[in-house]
Design a protein that fits this description.
single chain; alpha/beta; Rossmann fold; seven-stranded parallel β-sheet; three-stranded antiparallel β-sheet; 8 helices; 10 strands; 31% helix; globular; binds 2-amino-2-deoxy-6-O-phosphono-alpha-D-glucopyranose; Glucosamine6P_isomerase; EC 3.5.99.6; carbohydrate metabolism; hydrolase
Amino acid sequence: MRVIVQPDGDSIASLVAESIVRLVNDKPNAVLGFATGSSPLGIYRELIKAYQEGKVSFKDAWGFQLDEYVGLPADHPELYRNVIRTVIESHVDFSEGRVHAPNGTADDLQAAGPAYDTMIEDAGGVDFQILGIGTDGHIAFNEPGSSFSQGTHVETLTPQTREDNARFFDGDISRVPTHTLTQGLGTIMKAKKLVLVAEGEGKAEAIAQLIEGPVSAHWPATIMQHHADATVLIDEAAASKLEMKDYYRFAWENRLPWQSV
Ligand SMILES: N[C@@H]1[C@@H](O)[C@H](O)[C@@H](COP(=O)(O)O)O[C@@H]1O
């Protein structure tokens, strides 16, 4: 796993966005994996800027979201499908029908999971998956105890995740849905490239487990240690519990010309 410690969120966002722009310019029909949450917002801002400056076009690219709340109405601002429209999709030139999310209001939620995995495969599989991490070590909405090989499925949120996400629901935990439809760890591991971003002290323990802990369902993100192309970009606060922090910094500062995000 490549670990890149950066001074702040802006430098993390620029590095990741540059890598995505390079990919889409090389492969215009690239399949991008979108994460929600606050961590990737800087990346989306940088991508919008690159598009406005004429450095990239997304018209032949695809977008697949990681997860969705179950049961939120179609016009709810926190429905992840609406969040991605607001933070990236509506500002760039994705063609109609090219950005998708799991359907959290499907009549048959059990069938909606495998159907979503098939859509991703039919588009060619995810080339570049953006990820954040929950304070309990979840990626997408795969909570502690998740199967490492599962596809898209319904997940029950932990009280900690609902508490963390209450800030998006006027601080009222009772308004945070209890269930989500999320790509499973098996789905996420099929992406050709995983790029996880995290900032702040609150993520330090989850980041230490992800990078230096044993692979364990108790910290679902640790499955990334088994991915052949996984990069983690963090600020100093999120890196604060890493024993090998100085080595990671040295490795990045002394990277070879072809080594990038
Ligand atoms: N389902 C999302 C995850 O995809 C996200 O990575 C995580 C961290 O969110 P944030 O970046 O806001 O800390 O929590 C949410 O619950």
